[in-house]
Amino acid sequence: MNVVRYIFYVLAAVLLLLQTSCFDIVEDLTLTKNGSGRIELTVNLSKSKTKVASLMKLDQIDGLKIPNEKQVRDQVNELVQLLKKTSGIRNVQHELDFNQFIGHISCDFDNIEALNVYTSALSTHFNVRLTDYSNYTYQRDTGTLKRSYTHSKSAQKEFQKLSVANRQSISEAYYTSIYRIEGTVKKQTNPAGRIASNKKAVMVRVSLTELLEGKVGLSNEIVWQ
């Protein structure tokens, strides 16, 4: 199944049950001056864990298939094995907590190119054009990390299939990108971005609804010294 469609089927099913879906997706990137680093992704549904647990006991809702715990674990294990085979990606770790409903996956990368190779590998494996959505470049001599982001039309199309009420119900859901830099941040260009008081990190926090609708983006250029 196309991974974008799979994600939105699960999201739609959750929204059919929850009156208010409050959850967070956090992407945490640590970058050293030589271009290597670590990336971590966390999906946290703990604030709605009771209702999510009830949902996962069902087979389907309004024709939407609900994945059970085994199916979710199989999907994540498949992703982990793919990452382990990706050149430049090391120390792949993951954790699934079905008591709190928190999922976490992380890995080290040798260089920025490895992140883009990883993204390309996912696109090939799942047959979805992830490389159209995010791409990183790093200029060591100028201390510049650039993320180019293109809004996903396929994701927006899936999102628009939800009812107005269900789309509104994720108004409290957020996507957060954190960039931790080995150096002092001089500037960042994302309108939603904020530089930490110690100048060592940048955080971009946007509404998931606005991200899916293309009203905000994740593109950024971070310069440090």
Number of strands: 13
Structural class: alpha+beta
Could you give the order of strands across the largest sheet? Answer: 5-6-2-1-9-12-11
Biggest β-sheet: count, sense, barrel?
7 strands, mixed
H/E series: HEEHEEHEEHEEHHEEEEHE
Taking pLDDT < 50 over at least 5 consecutive residues as the criterion, the unreliable ranges are 1-10, 15-20, 126-131
Tally of separate helices? 7
Total separate domains: 2
Average of the residue pLDDT scores = 79
C-alpha Rg (nearest Å): 18 Å
Helix content: 25-40%
Strand content: 25-35%
Note the overall shape: globular
* Distance from first to last alpha carbon: 44 Å
Task: Provide tags for this entry.
225 residues, alpha+beta, 2 domains, 7-stranded mixed sheet, 4-stranded antiparallel sheet, 13 strands, globular, disordered N terminus
Give a written overview of the molecule.
With 225 residues, this protein is α+β, with helices and mostly antiparallel strands. The chain folds into two domains: 1-16 and 33-107, no CATH class; 133-225, no CATH class. 32% of the residues lie in helices and 34% in strands. The chain contains seven helices and 13 strands. It has helices spanning 3-17, 49-55, 69-84, 112-126, 153-160, 164-168, 208-213, and strands spanning 24-31, 37-44, 60-61, 64-65, 89-97, 102-109, 134-139, 144-149, 174-181, 185-188, 193-195, 201-207, 220-224. The strands form three sheets. Strands 5-6-2-1-9-12-11 form a seven-stranded mixed β-sheet. It has a four-stranded antiparallel β-sheet with strand order 7-8-13-10. A hairpin with a 2-residue loop joins strand 3 (60-61) and strand 4 (64-65). Helix 1 (3-17) runs parallel beside helix 5 (153-160). The chain is globular, with a radius of gyration of 18 Å.
